[in-house]
Amino acid sequence: MTIRRMDNVLIVVEDLDAVVAFFTELGLELEGRSPVEGRWVEQIIGLEDVRQEVAMLRTPDGHGRIELAVFHSPEPVRPEPRQAPPNTLGIRRVMFAVDDIDDTVVRLLAHGAELVGEVVRFENLYRLCYVRGPEGIIVGLAEELG
């Protein structure tokens, strides 16, 4: 048996509204938002007394998804350092292909994002950058050239 697809990536956040606004400004579409609790979720994630709210966002092509979750119980654990640099072990960023990197960066800056480094050109293939959004989430942007 082989993998059929990657279904989604989970990002645990504190301010669900701000992060949803950031990703919808980027171009993801909100599929739904709801509370999640009960024995089944406690069993699957290995925690007790779980109460959370989740929002599922999908890419415009319908193939990629990001699940955002805010934990009301148990209290979330904060990583250190809070604004981890791109070379910190673990998942560091999510990369999206965009039509216009300059326009996308400007729109995300209006939502409190900051450019991590610079917008760079990789050969004659891509313009690339990293943007740090709400709660330190790093998003990579790639504009295909040609």
Any overview of this molecule?
By secondary structure, the chain is α+β, with helices and mostly antiparallel strands. Helices cover 18% and strands 38% of the residues. The chain has 3 helices and 9 strands. It has helices spanning 16-26, 39-45, 101-109; strands at 9-12, 29-37, 51-58, 65-73, 93-98, 114-115, 120-122, 126-132, 138-144. Strands 5, 6, 7, 8 and 9 form a 5-stranded mixed β-sheet that branches. It has a 4-stranded mixed β-sheet with strand order 1-4-3-2, sandwiched between helices. A hairpin with a 3-residue loop joins β7 (120-122) and β8. The longest helix is centred in the first third of the chain and has 11 residues, at 16-26. The model has no long low-confidence stretch (mean pLDDT 92).
Give the helix/strand layout.
Layout: E1 9-12, H1 16-26, E2 29-37, H2 39-45, E3 51-58, E4 65-73, E5 93-98, H3 101-109, E6 114-115, E7 120-122, E8 126-132, E9 138-144
Parallel strand pairs: 1-4, 5-9
Antiparallel strand pairs: 2-3, 3-4, 6-8, 7-8, 8-9
Order of helices and strands: EHEHEEEHEEEE
Question: How does the major sheet shape up?
Answer: 5 strands, mixed
Strand segment tally = 9
Question: What percent of residues are in strands?
Answer: 35-45%
Low-pLDDT windows of residues: none
Given the structure, what is the number of helices? Answer: 3
Helix percent reads 10-25%
Distance between the termini: 38 Å
Summed over residues and divided by their number, the pLDDT gives a mean of: 92
Using the CA coordinates, give the radius of gyration: 16 Å
| Broad structural category | alpha+beta
Q: How would the global form be characterised?
A: globular
